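Quick log. Single chain, no ligands specified.
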Amino acid sequence: MLSKSGSRRKFAYLVALSLSVTLIMTACSPNEDATPVLAGAVVPTRVATNTPTATITSTPTTEPTTTSTPTATNTPTSTSSPTTTASPTATETASPTPTFTSEPPTATATSGIDLSLPTQATISV
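-> predicted structure:
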């Protein structure tokens, strides 16, 4: 059975594996004092697992500005002999401050994405 070269190779691997497992188990045996085995070994120090995590808190404050510019142009044309052309131009600019019934919503963002909700402004002209 061991006459084949493949079988001999498998046997050699099994012997080497069992020998290395035996040596490792002997070195790490909890029944004996491990100080002579570990002489000169570097023992890593324990790393703290409760490292603080940085949190970014963002409170956006936006004040929407609305500008309304209505322009009315009226040019009546009559068919009688006197021609009257009136072109009044009315320009009105309103920039009211929006009135909120409650505090505007705020959001706390931890990933840099703006999570604030859109606010509705009440405009009276």
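The mean pLDDT is 69.
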